[in-house]
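pls ignore typos typing on phone
guanosine-5'-diphosphate + seq
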Amino acid sequence: MVILRCRFITINLAPIRPSHFQSHKILHTTRFFRTPNLISTPRITSSSLPTTRSISDEARFARSVRFIPPGVEIEELTDDMVLPGSNIVIGPFAGHSQIKQVEFVKSSARARDCPKDDLPEIAILGRSNVGKSSLINCLVRKKEVALTSKKPGKTQLINHFLVNKSWYIVDLPGYGFAKVSDAAKTDWSAFTKGYFLNRDTLVCVLLLIDASVPPQKIDLDCANWLGRNNVPLTFVFTKCDKMKAAKGKRPDENIKAFQQIIRENFKQHPPWILTSSVSGLGRDELLLHMSQLRNYWDQ
Ligand code: GDP
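k done
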C-alpha cells in the first residue's frame, strides 16, 4: 500500500535527474483497480509504462505534466479530456460531483477524535488568508460553512462536513499566522501532521496556494512535507480573478514561478487547478476532480 501511494505522488525531493524518466518499470494498471483505498495510486506515471512502448513527444510531454487518472491510456489522451485551467485529465471514475447537501458533523482536536465511519474525505489546507473559507463556501454554495477559528493562538480544530451523506470535506486549521508564537506553530505542526499520518480515509489534500502573491516558502515547505510523507495532494490556486496585482507580479506569473519550483522538487507534477471564489472559476472542475478521486478510492 505504501509503495502504491508513493507511485501516485511520485515524489522525489531531489532535483529531477534524467534517470527518473529513463527507467520505465512495468506496472500493470489493472492492479490499481483491484486495490481499494488507494486513490493515492491513480496516476499512471512514466515508471508505469512498459519499456518496449514507443511514445510520441507529445505523449511524453503529457505524461510529465498532466495528472492522468486510472482508466485513461496515455495514447488515447485528447485535449478535451483535460479540465480547463488545470493539468487534470478526467477519466471514467469522474461522476456525480455537485453538492446537494452539507452538514457540519464535528470539530476534533486530534486525528483519533475524527469521525469513525470510514467515509472518504478530502481535506482542505492552506496558509491563513489563502481563501480557504471562501473556497469551501463556494464549493458548497453556502455562506459561513467553514468554521475554522481564524484567531492566532486559539484552539485549532479539524472540522468535518458531511457532503451528500457520503463523503467529508475536512477544513483544517490554516498555517502561517504572522503573529503566532513559536509554541503555537509547533502545535499546528504536531496536530496537523498527526492527522495526515494517521487518517486512513484521507483521499487527498487540497493544498491552497494564493495566486496573488509570489511563491511562499511556508507553502513549499508544506508541499514538500506532504510529498515526503506520500500524502496525495492537489494544488488549488486561489484568487485567480486578481489578474492585476496591487504590487509585484500577476497571478499567472506567480503560478508559473510556483510550478517551476514544484517541478524541480517533484518527480511528476501533482494535479493543479486554478480557482476563484469570487468569479466561480474552477469550481465545477474542482468538484469533478474530487469526484474521480473519491469514486476511485471508494470502489
Ligand atoms: P482563509 O483565512 O484562508 O479562510 O481566507 P478567507 O476565505 O477568509 O479569505 C481571505 C481574504 O481573501 C478575504 O478578504 C477574502 O475576501 C479574499 N478572497 C478569498 N478568496 C478570494 C478570491 O477568490 N478572489 C479574491 N479576489 N479574493 C478572495
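The chain has a mean pLDDT of 77. The beta strands are 102-108, 121-126, 158-163, 167-171, 202-210, 233-238, 272-274. more later
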